[in-house]
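QUALITY CONTROL LOG
STEP: pairwise intake check
CHECKER ROLE: data steward
CRITERIA: each record must contain a sequence immediately followed by its structure tokens, with no blank fields

ENTRY 1 OF 2
RESULT FIELD BELOW
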Amino acid sequence: MSTVEVPHGSRSVILRVASVIAETADTRSLVFDVPEELADKVRYQPGQFLTLRIPSDRTGSVARCYSLASSPFTDDRPKVTVKRTEGGYGSNWVCDNVQAGDSIEVLPPSGLFTPKDLDEDLLLFAAGSGITPVMSILKSALARGSGRVVLLYANRDHKSVIFAEELRALADKNPQRLTVVHWLEYLQGLPTADALATLVAPYAAYSAFMCGPRPFMDCVHDALEQAGLPRERTHAEVFNSLSGDPFADQAPVEVTDADAADAATVEVELDGEVHELSWPRKQTLVDIMLAKGIDVPYSCQEGECGSCACTVLSGKVEMDNAEILDPEDIESGYILGCQAHPVTDHLKIQF
């Protein structure tokens, strides 16, 4: 693998791979060195992900999102964990090619799959490599929180269990706070909503976080509904492959006089600051914030990663692509800033 020297855009950074860990036969973890001058750019929250720039003979590069399995509170270096998927170009390239000492270009950590309060009781669900962001949350809650943590982790068999030894050690160290339940397909078959609902019934007052294949998460959603867990306390992480190039700096969108004359106005709250902006209807919210030099969170600009999710407090928008959001999310006011266009003349939005 050739060494990457210069970032392809102003937002990305180049990190050196400190070590590569074989977690299972088909899973590798990449541990990164972070120089002091890049520490602020690579600071992350439990459950977030990194977007890696992966070389491609056909397109020059592809972008792939991989969750951080490390905890910002217990691990000295950030670590992403990648499991091979059949026909998955990015995961196979990482597992076959990356070695300690290599350099990889990454975008700053992103994602909203993170608890707002590490002190709350957490009910965590993972299947296969879905354990990666869940592990970050679990370790962070044990280190910095005070609540109980229950993990249900589904795999094909014992050999498929990622972080098996680490989970066992954490359970031994925190017997009063951590409960780990393994679901092995070769013994129990595929999980069913009825079976999971029975298992989670004692924890209906907890906040739930889930990550895994879509059929698994659909099953968990059904189980939580049966157990009476409110929708607002259920959080799911979903990844889709990105087709564009989020590493390239985006050219400003041209605004005609007619577009400017018909623009809406929007108050955007981000990191405690309120920005009042003109919002031409052909532009997205991310477009206008970038044009004003505002450090808006975004990654793919395709509506596939959820990095730019925010809440409409007043007004109305329409979105080009909102498939990553559940209907309940949209009903609650969540939107994707990279896909949103104003419908009403005045809006208030909060990140």
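ENTRY 2 OF 2
RESULT FIELD BELOW
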Amino acid sequence: MKDMLFQYLKNYTNVPDEALKEVIEHLPVRCFKKGTILLEQGDVSSKCYFVLKGLIRQFSVDTDGNENTSNFYSENQVASVYNPQRSHEASKYSLVCLEDAILLDGDLNDETQMYAKYPFLETMVRKMLEEITSNIHDDYADLLSFGPEERYLALLEKRPGLAERIPQNQLASFLGIRPESLSRIKRRLNPLK
């Protein structure tokens, strides 16, 4: 399974394969059951996960007790809410496994030591974060400029198969619409179902 991570990381560096494999061998692989809370809103985060298999939901609970889904992380994605500039602040989000998951479980407290031992890591991680940030900006722009149906269609196009794995109420929350509206959109797009 670590081959998936190797292929992912190769997109961000041109270091010799042996050096990259050595880094990957330091990362523990862990299995988590569906429903496992990886991070609770209000806790301080020091973990970073790479999804080898499974699905993670990122959400927050507002002052009225409503859950607001802000992201889903599936295979070949990094799931983290860690911010080194605010490393001791409480997380505004929770992370929970929506499916049984196999994750690479990185401890961000080891980041400095890993950068010292493998200097190429810092540049590689910066490139990864730039791409992740760019994707977040694109998704936010879609949320602001697209109507509900366009947001749903954009999700289907950008992340094929993901919508079928997510409970309707959580998918609707992620799209910024009510579950009933999502049902109407689905019926309109697939009248035979």
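INTAKE CHECK: passed for both entries
DESCRIPTIVE NOTE, ENTRY 2: The longest helix spans residues 120-145.
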